[in-house]
Specification:
363 residues; binds pyridoxal-5'-phosphate; Lyase, Ornithine Decarboxylase, Chain A, domain 1; TIM Barrel; 8-stranded parallel sheet
Length: 363
């Protein structure tokens, strides 16, 4: 492994770098916002998949973590984190068994949206002798999982209440379709419509006698709207910790900086105007566009193949095989999943290497 203290240029490539100053500022900026509103932050750990970062977010005031997958939740529990929301349905025998086992060692909360899954979870929790925390996922316009708002959600809450082995905690409603709306007023309008569905469903359940402790929603793009919406108790923002070019276009996020880059080596200058680097599709994700080259005018990342990135280079730019470049990630959450480690940099030197312990834990 590379020695700590070396300059960035000595790190072998491709490598995923965190600019620690920028990441720490992002954590503090978000924590400051949540000190000013009644809702809490429960950051989404799918972005970093790395327990030490989760612990830093909690130390800054977050109430726990959100996870996309049971495997991520297990990783966080192994690292000493108890309070987590799996913002997904956990379905099928092997996973349900793992979930109720995890409930012995944590305060895990899981999302449900169907009576069959509720019955399965209840039976498994009873057999294991645990009381499993559940929230109902409500479909607020994202067109993904979730019960319809209103009566169908109340019906499912009644199914949950039939089981002493389940502990109904509240509602989850993710307005993913609002996150990347660039114009903040348009985003506010759409987000309010979504939150209206969620909070009016909470009202219906409370009128029917249910205690609704959690109303969870929101992401990086809507945290400033959802986090202020009356009735929302926690926000699941993830990307803010690193940011990416997809989010840096979105209005209202100017206080967050891009902390994540891929360090890459130029491996060839085959023709004038062309360079090839060692970061292709297996080193950098491109579903939200090709990566800008950091701090280098006249060089454009043009095409990604599996292990090659083709760069267009202006004639006056000197770029030789062996030179290193940094690529700014366009989607931080999927990039993290490509690497075993973060190389953490401050003032141009390697300060730490952190294992991305939940990388690949998509089961
Ligand atoms: C359920 C859920 N909550 C929150 C988020 C927010 O994540 P981010 O802040 O990275 O947009 C996501 C993103 O996919 C999600 O699926």
């Amino acid at each position: 492994m590379v020695r700590l203290g070396v300059e960035v240029g000595e790190i072998d490539t491709p490598a995923l770098l965190i600019d620690l100053d920028v990441m720490e500022r992002n954590i503090e900026t978000m924590a400051r916002f949540f000190r000013s509103v009644p809702a809490s932050l429960r950051p989404h750990a799918k972005t970093h998949k790395c327990p030490i970062i989760a612990h830093k977010q909690i130390a800054a005031g977050a109430r726990g973590v959100t996870c996309a997958k049971l495997g991520e939740a297990e990783t966080m529990v192994e690292a000493g984190i108890r309070d987590m929301l799996v913002a997904n349905e956990v379905v099928g025998e092997p996973k349900v068994t793992r979930l109720v086992n995890l409930a012995r060692h944590s305060d895990v909360i899981v999302a449900v949206d169907s009576p069959g899954n509720v019955r399965h979870l209840a039976e498994a929790a009873r057999a294991k002798g645990v009381r499993l925390n559940v929230v109902i996922e409500v479909e607020v316009g994202n067109n993904r999982c979730g019960t319809d708002p209103g009566r169908p959600t109340l019906d499912l809450a009644r199914r949950i209440a039939e089981h002493g082995s389940l502990n109904f905690k509240g509602l989850l409603g993710y307005e993913g379709f609002c996150q990347n709306i660039i114009d903040i007023e348009e985003r506010r309008l759409k987000t309010h419509e979504a939150m209206e569905k969620l909070v009016s469903t909470r009202d219906l359940l409370e009128d029917a006698g249910f205690a609704v402790e959690i109303v969870s929603a929101g992401g990086t793009g809507t945290h400033m709207i959802t986090g202020r919406y009356p009735g929302v108790t926690e926000v699941e923002a993830g990307s803010y910790v690193f940011m990416d070019t997809k989010y840096s276009r979105v209005e209202g996020l100017e206080d967050f900086g891009c902390a994540l880059t891929v360090l890459s080596t130029v491996v060839s200058r085959p023709r004038p105007g062309v360079a090839v680097c060692d970061a292709g599709l297996k080193a950098i994700t491109t579903e939200f566009g090709l990566p800008p080259v950091k701090g280098l005018e006249g060089v454009t990342y043009e095409r990604a193949s599996e292990e090659h990135g083709r760069l267009k280079v202006d004639p006056d730019v000197k770029l030789r095989p062996g030179d290193k470049i940094e690529l700014i990630v366009t989607h931080c959450c999927t990039n993290t999943n490509l690497y075993d480690h973060f190389h953490c940099v401050r003032d141009g030197r390697l300060e730490a290497v952190w294992r991305i312990a939940a990388r690949g834990r998509s089961q």
